[in-house]
Amino acid sequence: xxxxxxxxxxxxxxxxxxxxxxxxxxxxxxxxxxxxxxxxxxxxxxxxxxxxxxxxxxxxxxxxxxxxxxxxxxxxxxxxxxxxxxxxxxxxxxxxxxxxxxxxxxxxxxxxxxxxxxxxxxxxxxxxxxxxxxxxxxxxxxxxxxxxxxxxxxxxxxxxxxxxxxxxxxxxxxxxxxxxxxxxxxxxxxxxxxxxxxxxxxxxxxxxxxxxxxxxxxxxxxxxxxxxxxxxxxxxxxxxxxxxxxxxxxxxxxxxxxxxxxxxxxxxxxxxxxxxxxxxxxxxxxxxxxxxxxxxxxxxxxxxxxxxxxxxxx
Length: 314
Prior knowledge:
The chain is 37% helix and 22% strand. Strands 3, 4, 5, 6, 7, 8, 9, 10, 11 and 12 form a 10-stranded mixed β-sheet that branches. The longest helix has 25 residues.
C-alpha cells in the first residue's frame, strides 16, 4: 500500500490537536480539505483512526497504534526533502501557554537565531511527547517538574504578572495590589485549575479559594467573560496588550510580584546548529533586556529558578 505523506501529515497534526479546525489552521489548509485527507487515509487502511462524537475528537485504538510510525514517516519525508535541497530545514519550535503570548519573546530572538517553523502545542505534556519522538527540535513555554528523562531546559525570561480585573471590581481603581488583597476575589481561569500549574499554585500560596472556569477560545473571549464578573480577576504578563474589550483594568502586583518563568526546552543530545544559535540568542537577549532579574524578597515564583546553568546545546 502506498501512503500519501500529505494524508499522514493531516492525521498526525489532528492527533496532536484533537481538533480538526486547529489542525487545519496549522497546516494552512481548509478544514474540509483536511477531513478529506483523513477520510481517504481511513478508507485505504480499512479502519477508523478517530472517534467523532459530541464529546469531541479522540483517537481509536488503531489510531493510537498508527500514530508513532506515521510521525516517523512524516519526519523521514521531511529529512529526504531537506537532503535533496541541500540545506537544513528550519528549526521546528513548538510553543504552549498561548493565552500568555509566548511568541512575543521568540520574536525578539528569531532574527539572530535564523528561520523558525512554529508549532501549536496544547500543553507541556503534549510538547514533551513531541520532543521525545523527534517531531520538533525545541519548545518554549513554562516548564515545571517533573520533566521526563531525556529533556533539558534553560530559563529564558522571568516576566512580571499583572492582575486583570473588570471595571466593577472593588479594587479596580487601585494603582497597585498585593496578591493577598485578592483573597476574597474570584480567580477566573481558562480551564480546570488542576491543569493550570501556575494559577493553581498562585491560588494556594495567596489563599484564594474562589475560582471560576472559562473556556479558552482566545484572549479576547476569555477577558470578555472576565469583564462581566464583578469580583473576578485573572493574571496576565505585564507587557501583553489588552484586547479591545471594554471595562478592563490591568493593575500591577507588588509585595511580592508574581513572575512567570519562560524556558527553552529541547531533547538532550540534540546537536543541531540552529538549536545552539536559538539558545545563544535567548541568553544574549536576556542579558540585554534584564529578563532574569529575581529577588526573593521582592518577587514570587512557584519554584526557585532552574534551568539557567550550562552551555547552549550543540
